[in-house]
Automatic annotation (TrEMBL):
Similarity annotation: Belongs to the group II decarboxylase family.
Protein name, entry field: Pyridoxal-dependent decarboxylase
Organism of origin: Actinoplanes oblitus
Key words of the record: Decarboxylase, Lyase, Pyridoxal phosphate
CC cofactor: pyridoxal 5'-phosphate
Signal peptide: none
PROSITE patterns xref list: DDC_GAD_HDC_YDC (PS00392)
Pfam family, one: Pyridoxal_deC
């Protein structure tokens, strides 16, 4: 064994203690850590021929790289709908690395059963029935891709072909209809060979990002055969929701696969005041929910639900002499593109076990309250205009001199927001999804925006 590796093994308890103490210090200072950090433009160093050992590597990381890391786990990082990691989720993440389970097979571990228990908890959390099975994936993009891949197979079955066996060329053109699709839907269509150009956007309701269901019905009626419909449960800019019950009712008249992108909007189900927004979610053929957003577990973790596991097996099954067959209750490598992966479910299991549905409901409702407070206060600043009601946890607003203001807020370290364009208007969006965030944080971000606006006018 390499001498440094042997020394680190012998001193592993002290190394873990040092890492714990450093991590605790980082978390203790997270409230004041700059929300955004500009890249340091460090010149890459060559690969070490002789290593320095783990203790020195930790020192090197602290000196060279840590100063350039953002406070994305903190309460005023409001970009990309980024959650943090609850204390229990962080414990789960550390133990995920400790046990290092390849969580796709029952042949040597109970990790798959833990994942299935966690999926059951999540199914209950989002109001889905037993007809929906679920599997962990890396994020919303992969969840959308898996759901649309199963939908592609369903379309093939309507024509008497198996795309998984015969290829996408056997399918012909596939109409995909959606009102305000997330960019990852286009990416998924490209990867699946269906093509970005196959997505046909359907008119929206006036001043909304929700699909006009009458227009959707007209588009379906004009088709010669089955289609894929991508509905939204929480759009990126304004967290708008398609009427899922009305969209699902169209399945009584038209043949289509209903995929619902509920990446973070699905968490509306946790709040009695907002659960109506996702009514009808259980009618979907496939559902995307991103857990490293509002469940506040570390990257990367999402879940994919479907009511058609048989078709999912057609697409993703993997045959090899050393693997279990896909019959019965299949191992998880038969259900997603990955043949091996970490036990992503453990962080979700820990945070759900620790805080339950009530604890996570409190996070959602507190974030919504912070977003509403932010929206009400930021709208009073000169040069600011709200572009949509604050429906849930994202505030979309136009600002005079937006690029300069956005950069000034980031430089201040007080907050990080992201730019967008809403209905042709350049805008900013503030997404509240962190378990630490409260109304006091909203006030600090408003103050930072006010200072940046005042500076831009001088």
């Amino acid at each position: 064994m390499d001498s440094r590796l042997a020394a680190d093994l012998a001193g592993l308890p002290d190394l873990l203690t040092a890492a714990r103490d450093y991590a605790a210090g980082v978390l203790d200072g997270l409230d004041e850590r700059p929300a955004a950090a500009p890249p340091a433009n460090l010149v890459p160093e060559p690969l070490p021929v002789t290593g320095v050992g783990a203790a020195r590597a930790l020192e090197m990381f602290r000196e060279r790289w840590a100063p350039g890391f953002s406070g994305s786990a903190g309460p005023r990082y409001l970009g990309f709908v980024t959650g943090g990691a609850t204390p229990a989720a962080l414990v789960g993440d550390w133990l995920t690395g400790t046990f290092d389970q390849n969580a796709v097979t029952r042949q040597d571990s109970s990790a798959v059963d833990l994942e299935r228990e966690t999926v059951g908890w999540l199914r209950s959390l989002f109001g889905l029935g037993d007809g929906h099975s679920g599997t962990f994936v890396s994020g919303a993009t992969m969840s959308n891709l898996v759901g649309l891949a199963i939908g592609r197979e369903w379309l093939g079955a309507r024509q008497g072909v198996s795309v998984a066996r015969q290829g996408v060329g056997a399918l012909g053109d596939v109409p995909v209809l959606s009102g305000a699709p997330h960019s990852s839907i286009y990416k998924a269509l490209a990867v699946l060979g269906l093509g970005r150009d196959q997505l046909r956007t359907v008119p929206l309701l006036p001043d909304r990002e929700a699909v006009d269901v009458a227009a959707l019905e007209a588009a379906l009626a004009a088709l010669d055969g089955p289609a894929i419909v991508v509905a939204n449960a929480g759009t990126v800019n304004t967290v708008d929701f398609d009427d899922l019950r009305a969209v699902a009712r169209l399945k009584e008249k038209y043949q289509f696969w209903l995929h619902v992108d509920a990446a973070f909007g699905g968490f509306a189900a946790l709040s009695p005041d907002h659960a109506h927004l996702v009514a009808g979610l259980d009618r979907a053929d496939s559902v995307c929910v991103d857990l490293h957003k509002w469940l506040n577990v570390p990257y990367d973790a999402a879940v994919q639900f479907t009511r058609h596991r048989d078709l999912q097996l057609n697409v993703f099954q993997n045959a090899a002499a050393y693997l279990t067959p896909p019959e019965g209750d299949p191992d998880l490598f038969h259900l997603t593109p990955e043949n091996s992966r970490r036990l992503r479910a453990l962080t979700a299991w820990f945070t759900l076990a620790a805080y339950g549905a009530d604890g996570h409901r409190e996070i959602v409702e507190r974030n919504v309250a912070a977003a509403r407070r932010f929206g009400a206060r930021v709208a009073t600043l000169p040069g600011v205009r709200l572009l949509a009601p604050v429906r849930l946890n994202v505030v979309c607003f136009a600002v005079d001199g937006a690029p300069e203001v956005l950069a000034a807020v980031a430089r201040s370290g007080e907050a990080f927001l992201t730019p967008t364009v809403h209905q042709g208007v350049p805008a900013l969006r503030a997404a509240f999804a962190n378990w630490r965030t409260g109304e006091a944080d909203a006030d600090r971000v408003v103050a930072a925006l006010g200072e940046a606006l005042a500076a831009s006018r001088r």
